[in-house]
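agent> Task received from the user: take the single chain below, predict its 3D structure, and emit structure tokens. No templates, no multimer pairing.
agent> Plan: (1) validate residues, (2) run structure prediction, (3) serialize to tokens, (4) report one or two observations.
agent> Step 1 OK, no nonstandard residues flagged.
tool_call: predict_structure(input=
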Amino acid sequence: MSVDMVEVSEPPRTAGIPQQNRVFLDFFWDLAKPDQEVRLKAVQSLIQYLSSENKVDELDYTFKRLVDGLAHTRETARPGFSLALGQVLSAFEDVSLQSVLDRIKEKHNLQFVKKKLARNAMFGNLFGVLALHQSGRLSKEPPVLLGCVQLLQNLSQHKQHLKDLPSKTMMDILTEIPEDVFEEVLMGALQSDLSSAFRTPEQLQLLLVALQHFPQALKPKKLKTLLGSSTIINAENIPKLTELMKMTARSVKKERVLPAVVLDLLKLSLKEGSFELFWNKAITEGMFREHTGPTHYLSFRLLGSALPLLSVDQLKKVLSGEVMMHYGEHVVSAQKPDRFKLAPEMDAYVSDFLQGCQDPDKQLAVMLGFSSLTNHGYPVVPSAWRVVQHLQPAALQAYVEWLRNSFLHPQMDQLLDFSTRKQKSNQEAQEEKEDSVCRLRKWIMSRLCSIIDNQHVKKQEDMIMEVARFVFFHAFFTVKKASPDIAESKEKLSVPLDERTRSVLVNLFFGLLMSLHHLPLTDDSTEGAVGQKRVFGVTADGTMWIYHLVQYAALLLNQPKHVQRTKPFSPEQTEAWEGMLESVANLKKKAKKGPTEENRAFQQLFLLVGMHLFKAPEELLDIIKDLQSCVDRAQEKKAKKKSKKQATAEEEPEWVEVMVDILLSLLSQQSRHIRQVCKTVFSSIVPHLTHAALTAILDVLDPEKENEEDGAVVVTDDANETKKTKKSEDSDEEEDHDEDMEEDESDDSADDSDADDEDMKEEEEEDETMEGEEVDQNFRLELMKVLQQKKALPTEEGSSSDDDMDDEAMMQLDKGLSALFSEQKKKNQAKKDEKAKMQKEKALVRDYKIKVLDMVEVIVSRQAGSPLVLSLVEPLLSIIERGMNSTTEQQEMDFLRRAADIFRNQLCRSKVYCRTAADRQGELHDLLDKLMTKSQKLSDSSVCLYYFSASLYMVKVLRGAPPAETKGEQSAADNYKFMGCVDVDRVSAVFRDALSSFLSRRKSPLSAQMFTDLFTRFPVLCVNLLDTAVQNITSGIREHQQGQACVLVLRSMQSREVQQLMSGSRWEELCSKVSCQLQESLTQAGSAENKTTKEKVVKVLELCQFLVKHVQHQKLSVDLNALQKVLQNLSSTITFKKTGKLEDTYWAVMKHFGVMKPKVEKTKPDVETEQNQAPKKKKGFLPETKKRKKRNKPILEPAAINSASMDKPEKEKEQVKKKRDKKTKQKRPADGAGAQANPAKKSKTLPESKAAKKKKKKKKKAQAGGQE
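)
tool_result: status=success, residues=1268
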């Protein structure tokens, strides 16, 4: 009996350990949670607990729980238990690993476990071995090490579940054990796997790992014994290795990674000295036999990973081989968006290599290798390749020299050039060679400019200047004879530049100028200065980059014997150039006395216009002359040297007006750089702006004068190419040409593209357009004449037929018809061209106006306090109004959005405004009246919002700033009453009319929010308009307007400023008026079943709540008894729900009168009545009355006792049947024949078999629910 008691009591004792300490048990719960941080904290806490308590039974229980958790059904829990087991074994070294291994094998034995739990048991064994490995004690207990390896060998057979995890675990174990342990313990166990290394990729990787870590144990003699050869990579094993790599490539197709076994093979080939054999035979010849796919991608990834491992010679061979050719073909063919692109991965490989490599020779070899891979002369890597930022200075300098030499002397034979099948078949070799040179030169220049543009590239000023001079020289000059002063003249071009390439160079040069304008100082000393403003566009000595280039251009122009311009200057242009240099020199002299931003801006403008003189001399010739005279007059006026010119000053315009005209004309140039410089110059001269100059700017933006601006736009067609000469977007010239070139190469190289299909599509489109066009009456008459002349039309005397005409007459008729239709086609095409030209001109004008808005923005931001800003209100409003009513084109929307942002956010909401409006009171009041009158006539509420904002801005300008000397409450009230130059009565009348219009019109563009802003910003006007708002609580035209009047009154009465302005008897009088209006409004409410009525009642009740609360709190002498009676009677007219905004607001008001919301008493239902009632419906099941009965099943007569209960269902069935009969009668047509024409709808009922199955399932669920 006692023995039985011991056996029975032992399990509760062991299970009671965690019950005594719940903290201990929570550790195991936390190990199974999905959050990794929680699991790690649980492992750490468990070890600390076991170390502090040091109880044997708890330790034993810990091992039991951890071993059980290795096969947890939750995948995220297994790593937690495995990590905990490994850490516990590492902390308690007195515990034998053999005992834990035996416990793992016993618990997760695959032979005795159920089939359903076999997968979990496999993972239990795997994670158990991982835990033993993580303990760091495997090498100390060889038997356990051998047992773990044998267990992993058995698990490797279950690849369906474990994949390659056992083999990876085995490799991890091999990397951390000593060589002697491997030789003594594991060599025999792994001999079968090592000898069959060429069977699977996992076994091959096991051999490679063993070779890396145990070279003494696996000497060539041992390898010969195992494999039959003393080396792994040899001619005999290449086919086997190739097949294994192909298998590996297919296995990682979805992962898109480079398998470790392939990289280990590459490292082994370098170690054995057989790299060329491996690369040429296994990679180049073996992996690329198949079509494009995983094997190709694996080879490309191996190429990127091999870059840090190869020497300079090996890099040159690899990067000039067939693998690179295949990579180039992949890059070109993957231009389409739906294809896989490996180029980003290759960029990452190259970037990592350049970042980690410190050898300039290797860096240069890689850069030259990828830059030399060209498709029809154009390199496959982008010209803005950002990996160049990791180059060492020596490598960067050598790379730039190579680019320059390749531009001067392009050696196409030394490039790794490839062409697609279409390029080879459609183009001749000579034409292709010439075109390839042009494409290569364009890329080289783009590459040089992108190096300067990339601010992350470490470059010296000398190199920047050399590149800029190189691009400028070849864009505008040619060499006649070498000169020692001009380095670019020492070498001539082996292949002359064509005009197309030169035009690209011109655009690239001005893009380079833009980059130099934003280039920060390259001196490292400026980076360490804290709080120092960064300087852009200058060299270390403070000179602008563009000034150096202008000096270089002057040097070239002064040596006509050695170099010459591609388009020489005329005498007038040369004079303008020299005048520009003289003006810059004068400005620099004056800057020495005291440098200013204005002086610097004028210098920059002169220099930039002078450089653009090389590109468009005819357009800028007059601008330079006007600019010189304008700057001279500006300097003279500043120095007050105008005594002699006072007589002519009245006739001649101000220098600011001339400068504004010059800037407006310069904005039409295609240059983002000019746009920015013009904005900088205008910012410096905006303090001197006059009304005439502002008018010139506003005339450009005036929508009514848009037709006059079309004359400044010139669009010419030349060889089906439209050339925009004025007012076009400026970013075209500075943008990189890579996108166009990539489109060219993708179009040229796409094998699946067919030009014939495109021609057919064009012909079909032309036919469709010809068919869709309306018939021209003149064309009809001409056609009739031709047919009558050829006697192909029937006459009155008799009929004519084609059979009566001979062949010659038919040929003449065909010629006449052909000529007529071709002429008509030309006319239609001319109409289309004219329409396209008009659209382009409209886009150019809109684009130009967007750039002119820069000047308006400068005026608003820099001169917000100037009276001239007031002249911007009406023009900006007209732009917004016109833009809101126009089409929704993207360019138009951008222009509108920009104008609206300037007007509302920068003008109306600016804290700085004109405070000298005393002289213009009448004008501003008239403008305010005009704006408010126009706002009431608008149809669009969004446009009306801008007009109302402008009106508030006018009131703010008229009021000005209140005096800031007085203090205290009285001063605050005085500040509220302060209105400056505002005619309060007149302005109040204007806004009162607007408020009356808003509350008395059914459709008004005004809104309550507009007047709320008015009341908040100007309390004095709010006080004057309150009577109108209170009156419209009952007299509003509709219930919506009456509710809005309540909102306005509520916001006004809540304002502290209004309360202070209307303190005393005026405030009590207002409260009494509001109370009376509220009584009348609630009396008119009715039943409040309509939605608008409910909303109105809610707003009335909100106002009532504030009024009652305020009167009671301030103890005002206002009679609220009548309002209370109306509110009490309201509950009888309006049906309140349990909850809702209306009900809650009503009871919140009544609470102030002492009337509380009645509470609904919850009564418990009687138990006896519940039992007598029908049983409660189960959730999720249909009631009996809703269930469909089986029609084929005979209905049995019930007993006499249940007859009464069956009467009701029968009545319901009769009613349902009547309804069905009515529906069928309504759907049935008048005659019976039509019944077959309209097939009956499909029945929603399921087939009997399915319905029966569902009923069985429902019955089973019902039974199960009843058992529960």
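agent> Step 4: summary for the user.
Strands lie at 373-375, 378-379, 416-418, 477-479, 563-565, 715-718, 721-724.
agent> Done.
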